[in-house]
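Notebook, bench 3.
Goal today: get a predicted structure for Glycosyl transferase from Gluconobacter kanchanaburiensis NBRC 103587 so we can plan the truncation constructs. The sequence was checked against the plasmid map this morning, with no discrepancies at the termini. Length recorded as 466 residues. Pasting the sequence as submitted so the record is complete.
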Amino acid sequence: MSEASTSVRWFWGLLGGLTVLRLLLAANVPLTPDEAYYWVWSRSLQCGYLDHPFMVALWIRAGTWIAGNTPLGVRLLGPLSVLPGSWALYHAARRLLPSFAWPQSGLKVALLLNATLMLGLGAATMTPDTPLLFFVTLFLYTLSRAIDPTLTARGAIPWWLGSGILLGLAFDSKYTAVLIGLGLGGAVLSTARLRRQPGPWLAIPALAVTMLPVILWNAHNHWASFLRQGGRAGDWRPARAMQFIGELLGGQIGLATPLIFILFVMGLWACIRRNRLLAWMALVPVVVFGTHALGDRVQPNWPAVIYPVLALAALEAGWRIKPAVISGFLVTLFVSIQALFSPLHLIPHRDPVLRLTGGWSAFSKAVALKARSEGATALAVDDYGLAARLAFTQNILPVVGTDSRWRLFRFPSTSSPRAIRIEEQRHAAPVDQSATLCRNVRGQPIRCYSLSSPEEVVGAQLPGPS
C-alpha cells in the first residue's frame, strides 16, 4: 500500500471518529437560545425569516423528523454534513491548487478546516453558518471542475450551472454568501479565459433562480429581512474603530485558532501574488468585513463564509501545517470537554458555553410551575431567545411571544388574561426576591429573571416540544 493511500485511509478514519465525537457533543450539550429560536422556525417552515434565510430551519426540520425534538435532532445534520463537505474540499484542492501534489494537498486543506474551532465545535451546533459552510465547500468543488483547463467551454457549462445553484443554496443559508459570489465575479471579469466562456454567464440565472424563494418572501413581507441586515451597514461609529477592529481580529484568532489564523493570513497574501481566483473570493469578504469594522461591530462568526477558501489559500504560503492542525484540534478538544463536563469551574461570565446553555431545564420547569401556582395560563416573553428556549424546554404552560418579529410567522395570535411576563434582569440586585428566578449551575446563578403578576397579554403562541 502506497504512502498516499495510507494517508487517505488515516484521514477518513480520523474524520469518521470526529463525526462520532461531534454527534456525542451535539446530543449532550443543551441548546443555546439562538438554536432554540431556529427550532421554532422549523415548526413554521417558510421561505425566509426576519434574521436569516430558511435553510437552517429546513435542516432542523429534517433532523428532528429523524431524531425528535431533542438537541441531537436539532443538530443532527451538522456533524453529518462535515463528511461530504470535507470530501468536496479534498477534491477541490486538486484543481484550485494546481501547483501542489494531490491528494496530499486535499488532505491538508480538509484537515485545516476541520481543525478550526469554527468547524470543530460549530459542526456540533446548528446555526445558519452550519449549512452555509457545507454549501460553500460543495460550491468550491463544482467551481474547481468548472475551471478545469482540460474541459472545453461547452463541457464546463454543467459545472458552472452547479456552481451557481450551490452558491444560491449558500445564500439561502446566510446572506454573507453573496460576498463569495462577488469575489467570483471579480475573478471572472479579470481573467480573459473565464470571461470569454458561456459558463460563468449561464451560472447567473441558475444562481438567481435558487435565490428566488428568499427574494419573494422579502418582497411579500416589505423587505423585512433585507432591510434588517442591510440596516447594520448604516451604523457608523468611527470613534470606536480600533475597538471594533480589535474585536474582529480577536474573534478570528479564536475561531480559527491562533496558528491556523496565521496560516490563513499568510496564505491570503501568497494568493494575491499567484492565485487570482482564491484571492478574489477571499479578499472581497475581507475588505467588506474590515470596512464594516471601521464603524460598527463585526460578529465573530460572520467571516466563517470564507474559511473554506482560506483553508485552500493557506497552502499557498508554503508553510508546514502540522503544528497548526495539532494545536487547532487540541483547542477544540479542550473547549468540547469544557462544554460537556466543565472541569474548570469558571464563573459564568468567563465560560460562554455555560452562560448560554447552563441551567435551562430546571429553570424552565420552575418558571412554569411558579406561574401555574399563581393561576397563570401562559408565559409571556418579549426576548425571542428566552421565549424560544422556554418553548423548547417545557410543555407545562404555553409561551406567548410578544416581540413584533413573531408577526412574520403563521403562529396563532392569542390573548391571555392570566399570563406572567418574564424578563431578564439587567441590574445587579433584584428589587423583589420573591418575584425572581435564576438559572443556576452548581448552585451558582448564571442569569436571573423577574416575573410579573398575572396580566392580560397579546402575542403569538409559540409551538411546544410535543
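The mean pLDDT is 93. The radius of gyration is 23 Å.
Flagging this for group meeting.
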